[in-house]
Amino acid sequence: MREVIARVLENAPITEDVFSLTFCCEEEIPVRAGQFAMIGVSGFPLRRPIAICKAEGERITVCYRLKGEGTKRMSRELKPGENLSVLLPLGNGFYAAEEERRIALVGGGAGVFPLISALRQYADKKQVFAYMGFKNKENLCMEHEIYRASGGLIATDDGSFGFHGSAVAAFESEADKIKPEVVFSCGPLPMMRALAEYTKRKNIKTFVSLEERMGCGLGACLVCICEKTNGEHARVCKDGPVFDAREIFG
Ligand SMILES: Cc1cc2nc3c(=O)[nH]c(=O)nc-3n(C[C@H](O)[C@H](O)[C@H](O)COP(=O)(O)OP(=O)(O)OC[C@H]3O[C@@H](n4cnc5c(N)ncnc54)[C@H](O)[C@@H]3O)c2cc1C
Ligand code: FES
Known about the structure:
The strands form 3 sheets. This protein has a 7-stranded antiparallel sheet. Strands 11-10-9-8-12-13-16 form a 7-stranded mixed sheet, sandwiched between helices. A two-stranded antiparallel sheet has the order 14-15. The protein has 2 domains: 2-90, Translation factors (Elongation Factor Tu (Ef-tu), domain 3, Beta Barrel); 102-209, Rossmann fold (3-Layer(aba) Sandwich), CATH 3.40.50.80. The chain is built from 6 helices and 16 strands. The chain is globular. The chain starts with a strand and ends with a helix. It is of the alpha/beta class. Bound molecules: flavin-adenine dinucleotide (FAD) and FE2/S2 (inorganic) cluster.
């Protein structure tokens, strides 16, 4: 983990409520898929945790949905050339074993962004199938990245683009055909719970990336504690954000 003063290269909307922010660090920072950054926002003591979407040498891209005051301020104030204080890379990230050749990615909403980094990391080495869900066609983004996948489906809740239904339903419609050995997921908790129930029945190893409010992002403040099914507690920032789905959903 490093604290860097990065320079903003670009910060622009990619849909009506999602911004893509690219910044340049002083040096190349090795990043694993699923790791995140804590981004400083002027006027707020707490940094905002955002998944790293792309790491290209010294250039890092994150995509963030406008939610509350912090992300809205990021969208207004981070202009090209501005400096930005960032902690990165944080958390454990997604991991596929050497012998796991077929990976399925199942993501919804802002959960698509950490999965893009998994797609970029594994697309050349393994067969990666992407099932990415959006509210509607207007909210669709990162198609050019999603199309790196060997297969899969883009899903919209209202059927205005691609598969009509959730990312989980899209995945279930093809799971028997693609036979994934491991599934990586990120998105709303009910979505990941539904996925975990399905993959448990099918005996498919599944990893989920969790979102919790964070203070330090470094494992020290215990703001981000979650309870696992065995009663033990885990720090989402340090022990996660990626967990075996059975640890979280049973
Ligand atoms: C590991 C991780 C990766 C994430 N990756 C992304 C991403 O790639 N793209 C994206 O759009 N969002 C992502 N999020 C969610 C993002 O952190 C929140 O949307 C953001 O912090 C909201 O800040 P705000 O000031 O706009 O909202 P407010 O609601 O005003 O925030 C108030 C406080 O609550 C925290 N908070 C609010 N919502 C969340 C949330 N869902 N998760 C964690 N903390 C929250 C804020 O950080 C802040 O400290 C991620 C969260 C985590 C934990
Ligand atoms: S955010 Fe401080 S321990 Fe996780």
